[in-house]
């Protein structure tokens, strides 16, 4: 198929030639002006045709359609300049500084909420009224194509699981449940944007069969000393609060950015389960009614510091440090009735208290050097550390109607149990990237990368038996994992003419994974595998406002250490959570057609996964009378997905953003009692309404809705919510007030059904209804934020490393 792909791509586009204009923007002293605005306007009415930004060297390039046009150049702190749109190289264009007035006028340009990028979609979090005081997880949930399964700790992109999550371009190598916990405690106040990258290029890791979600934190590059502070108070079922402070000090060659955030969330959730099943451990056929209420209090601290030093015009170096600590107290009350047919009844009452403490820290060091014109090299080293300690206590009674204990006192039926779980993850990364402009129309990018991951995980359940705490052998785990991934890539970008570009690359990754029992030193898993990952993209600019792209990528989804470890975690007296050492990595092939017209974006994606991983599936295990909830490989899955992002501007004060992701989805599962195939139509919709009101008021209303979907053999019912927020910008730079309401109509809950697709183990048929706190009462938040400090826009001398530093943050 790959041999046929390139001719197919080339035949798909037959371009007419287009005039090209280029040049370089500098100040009066010849210093380049990076990221300056270049606007192509019609001569007759000054209507905007298209826009672009200069790169870090101040260079711009635009294709110009037929007709009379002129170019307008803008840069903060400088006077705009208009010039006729010529043809070819316009040479060096000099901007003059703007005269400063004591009564400085502040002009704000609001970024659109959604922007299409080469690999996917960008969500500009900082511009949303509803982001203030929320968590990163809540913002992700409102993003087009993203689905968060809070009940089963799952994240999917465009209907597919296997998403790799990055923070400032660094992959967070932890289990999905730990990622959900991390994002749920991370404040959105510090987030600049979220990049949803469905088809990454060769410079990205091949990990992530569904693509990447990259969370980019705020960073102020303006000259001088500046800062921003914000405070949020809220209440739903319980109190919520966030305070944050950001400081930046930038001079000509030195930049320092720091931030600190504290957040608190007192929340509540409740869950109902109704099921029928055959459980030998309880004597046979059962009807079960289960109710669970959870009260969680989370206190979270986040801090970051970044330093960047420009050694000379060709060399830039820097370091970045992040730290996050979270304390989480979870108290759960569980009540269940087991009707053992035909007439016996068992009653279960349990109380669980978990104290979850975790620390996440990271350090990055980088060097970017321009060797000569059009040739750069970047070096980077990363170290990531993650520690989690999650002890728990369980007190329960499992009784007959006569008050007699059910089950034995030497098993998971024990009325007093204690659990402990400790995980340490250490990740080291070394990488080097090289870029060279071989000719005016041909660009080379290449690099190498090595990643070493060490995981130590110990967990267990002990029961109080005859006055002594006794560990259950089937519920104890002490596992260590080592994983190494070595990668090398090369890609070429060929500009055939002013309207047609071909990007083709190849990445090779060699990975080894070793998992062993740290008590016995027995090696459970020892895998070594090398895989080639090609990618190719053909981009064709159809007009000044329209672009078409056809691409192919190959990806891999590797099991996490939690997926592979043979741990046992208590669920209830009849079920435990565990891993699966037999899991295989999933291989994904994607073919994507993307069309963009002005700010509208449409794409059609065909994706096929071999052996995709489905977590939280119902299976049998070593103890035949227990239910094991574990990850399983499916046979395959195929998706044909259409995505549309449509911003609509009604007038100067009313605009809308709509997003749709949906299509045909087919899969086959093997772990059920009988293998089964299923095809269905899955979709999700996001929408927002933005109103610019008089006297610096603005209003935002947004919502999302996800249709029915399947996760392995588990069916998820539709879910959705509606949110609203209002913002007031105070005069004389006195700050901003924001008020928001989450889940206005109290609709947010998640329903899963087991046994509807085919027969499950123990003939289980159940309906699980998980409700967030907003099912009881919406969450109200009031925020105040203000910026302070002074200074003009920082002029960063061109090092020629702009693209590479972006890659440092993105892979």
From TrEMBL:
Q: Write the signal peptide boundaries.
A: 1-19
Q: Which residues form the Outer membrane protein beta-barrel domain?
A: 373-759
Spell out the Basic and acidic residues composition-biased ranges: 802-811
Keywords for this protein: Signal
- UniProt cross-references to InterPro entries, sorted A to Z: CarboxyPept-like_regulatory (IPR008969), OMP_b-brl_3 (IPR041700), Plug_dom_sf (IPR037066)
The UniProt entry, under Pfam families, shows:
CarboxypepD_reg, OMP_b-brl_3
Q: Which segments carry the region annotation Disordered?
A: 790-811
Enumerate the PANTHER family for this protein.
Answer: PLUG DOMAIN-CONTAINING PROTEIN, TONB-DEPENDENT RECEPTOR-LIKE BETA-BARREL DOMAIN-CONTAINING PROTEIN
Q: What is this protein called?
A: Outer membrane protein beta-barrel domain-containing protein
């Amino acid at each position: 198929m790959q041999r046929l792909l390139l001719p197919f791509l080339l035949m798909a586009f037959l371009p007419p030639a287009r005039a090209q204009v280029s040049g370089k923007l500098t100040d009066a002293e010849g210093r380049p002006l990076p990221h300056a605005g270049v606007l192509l306007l019609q001569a007759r009415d000054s209507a905007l045709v298209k826009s672009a930004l200069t790169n870090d060297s101040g260079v711009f390039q635009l294709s110009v359609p037929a007709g009379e046009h002129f170019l307008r150049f803008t840069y903060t702190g400088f006077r705009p300049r208009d010039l006729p749109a010529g043809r070819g190289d316009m040479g060096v264009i000099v901007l003059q500084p703007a005269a400063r007035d004591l009564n400085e006028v502040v002009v704000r340009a609001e970024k659109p909420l959604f922007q299409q990028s080469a690999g996917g979609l960008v969500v500009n979090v900082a511009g949303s009224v509803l982001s203030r005081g929320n968590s990163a997880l809540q913002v992700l949930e409102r993003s087009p194509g993203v689905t968060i399964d809070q009940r089963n700790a799952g994240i999917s992109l465009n209907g597919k699981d296997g998403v790799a999550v990055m923070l400032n371009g660094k992959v967070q190598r932890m289990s999905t449940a730990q990622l959900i916990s991390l994002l749920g405690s991370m404040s959105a106040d510090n987030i600049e944007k979220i990049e949803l990258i469905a088809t990454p290029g060769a410079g990205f890791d091949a990990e992530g069969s569904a693509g990447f979600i990259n969370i980019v934190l705020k960073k102020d590059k303006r000259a001088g000393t500046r800062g921003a502070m914000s405070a949020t108070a809220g209440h739903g079922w319980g109190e919520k609060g966030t305070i944050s402070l950001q400081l930046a000090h930038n001079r000509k060659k030195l930049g320092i950015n720091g931030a600190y955030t504290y957040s608190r969330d007192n929340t509540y959730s409740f869950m109902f389960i109704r099921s029928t099943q055959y459980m030998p451990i309880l004597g046979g056929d059962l009807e079960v009614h289960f109710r669970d209420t959870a009260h969680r209090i989370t206190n979270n601290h986040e801090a970051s510091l970044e330093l960047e030093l420009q050694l000379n015009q060709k060399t830039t170096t820097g370091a970045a440090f992040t730290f996050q600590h979270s304390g989480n107290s979870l108290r759960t009350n569980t009540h269940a009735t087991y009707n053992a047919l035909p007439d016996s009844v068992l009653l279960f009452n349990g109380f669980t208290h978990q104290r979850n403490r975790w620390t996440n820290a990271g350090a990055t060091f980088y060097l970017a050097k321009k060797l000569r014109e059009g040739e750069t090299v970047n070096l980077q080293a990363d170290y990531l550390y993650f520690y989690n300690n999650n002890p728990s206590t369980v007190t329960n009674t499992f009784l007959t109607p006569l008050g007699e204990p059910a089950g034995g006192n030497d098993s998971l039926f024990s009325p007093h149990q204690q659990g402990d779980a400790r995980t340490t993850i250490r990740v080291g990364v070394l990488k080097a990237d090289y870029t060279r402009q071989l000719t005016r129309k041909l660009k080379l990018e290449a690099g190498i990368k090595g990643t070493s991951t060490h995981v130590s995980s110990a967990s267990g359940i002990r029961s109080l038996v005859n006055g002594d705490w006794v560990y259950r052998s089937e519920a104890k785990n002490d596992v260590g994992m080592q994983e190494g991934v070595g990668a090398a890539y090369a890609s070429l970008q060929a500009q055939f003419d002013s309207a047609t570009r071909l990007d083709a690359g190849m990445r090779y990754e060699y990975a080894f994974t070793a998992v062993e029992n740290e008590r016995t030193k027995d090696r459970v898993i020892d895998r070594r595998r090398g895989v080639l990952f090609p990618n190719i993209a053909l981009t064709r600019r159809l007009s000044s406002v329209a672009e078409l792209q056809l691409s192919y990528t190959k990806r891999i989804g590797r099991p996490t250490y939690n997926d592979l470890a043979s741990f046992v975690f208590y669920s209830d007296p009849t079920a435990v959570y565990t891993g699966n050492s037999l899991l295989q990595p999933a291989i994904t092939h994607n073919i994507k057609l993307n069309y963009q017209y002005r700010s509208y974006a449409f794409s059609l994606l065909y994706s096929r996964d071999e052996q995709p991983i489905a977590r939280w599936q119902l299976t049998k295990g070593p103890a035949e009378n227990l239910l094991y909830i574990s990850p399983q490989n499916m046979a395959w899955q195929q998706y044909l997905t259409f995505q549309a992002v449509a911003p609509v501007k009604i007038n100067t004060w009313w605009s809308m953003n709509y997003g749709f992701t949906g299509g045909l989805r087919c899969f086959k599962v093997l772990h059920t009692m009988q293998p089964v195939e299923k095809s269905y139509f899955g979709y999700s919709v996001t929408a927002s309404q933005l109103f610019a009101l008089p006297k610096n008021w603005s209003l935002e209303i947004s919502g999302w809705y996800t249709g029915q979907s399947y996760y392995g053999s588990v069916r998820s019912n539709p879910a959705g919510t509606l949110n609203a927020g209002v913002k007031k910008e105070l005069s004389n730079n006195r700050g901003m007030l924001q008020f928001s309401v989450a889940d206005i109509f109290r609709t947010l809950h998640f329903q899963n059904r087991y046994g509807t697709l085919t027969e499950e183990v123990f003939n289980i048929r159940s309906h699980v209804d998980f409700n967030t706190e907003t099912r009881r009462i919406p969450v109200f938040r009031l925020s105040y934020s203000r910026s302070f400090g002074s200074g003009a826009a920082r002029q960063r001398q061109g090092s020629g490393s702009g693209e590479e530093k972006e890659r440092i943050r993105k892979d």
